[in-house]
Amino acid sequence: MGLGALVIPALTSVRPIHEQLVEAVVTALGRLIEEPGLSPEPVAVPVELVARESA
Questions:
Q1: What single string gives the DSSP state of each residue in 1-55?
Q2: 42: CB partners within 8 A, 6+ apart
Q3: What is the extent of the structural domain holding 17?
């Protein structure tokens, strides 16, 4: 349970798709290990909206 569910009113938040987040991180780390001079690139992963009382 996230912090958003514990406050009053319960806060709306987003939940990342963990499998895709892990895949993106591993891919980025692999690129940086193979080519240490590269700058990290921004990565977007899908999220799920968790609508609570504040929505």
A1: --GGGTSSSPPPEEEE-HHHHHHHHHHHHHHHHH-TTPPPPP----EEEE--TT-
A2: none
A3: 3-50
If one compares 46 and 7, the residue with the highest pLDDT of the two is: 46
pLDDT (average), residues 16-38: 93
Contact in structure between 24 and 47 (CB atoms under 8 Å): no
> Which tokens belong to 19?
């499998």
Residue 55 counted as domain residue: no
Alpha-carbon distances, residue 27 vs 6, 13, 14, 31, 49 (angstroms): 34, 26, 23, 6, 25
Looking up tokens 């980025």 gives 28
